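Reading is simple: each integer encodes one residue's backbone shape. The lines below illustrate:
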Amino acid sequence: MYERKLPIQQECGLDLIREVIFGKWKIHLLYYISQGISRPGQLQKNIPEATRRVLNIQLKQLEDDELVAKTVYNQQPPKVEYYLTDIGQSIMPIVNQLGQWGDDNSGHLQRVIKKRLVLPET
């Protein structure tokens, strides 16, 4: 079982939010679910870079943290749909604002990311 090396700093909102929404695909999952994309297969199609396993893990974490919930339909084949909880909906204006900031500053962000990817000369 995983054991944390450093305790979670619970006095700072930034540390708390990092623990709950930072993950490679969590913000994408929240965004797509907020847009009505609710089935796991649909989410996978919208985030093709992510494996189904990782998406399932992060959906479970978001569910455990009560940002999303799911409805399981008793049918064959099984059907699951995710939706945002009230607390999940409350973070969407911030997620949307971050996305807009990224769009507005995409040239700068692409340039600095590209610089990181260039190998230094030896």
Remarks:
- The helical segments are 13-21, 26-34, 40-46, 52-64, 86-104, 106-117.
- The mean pLDDT is 90.
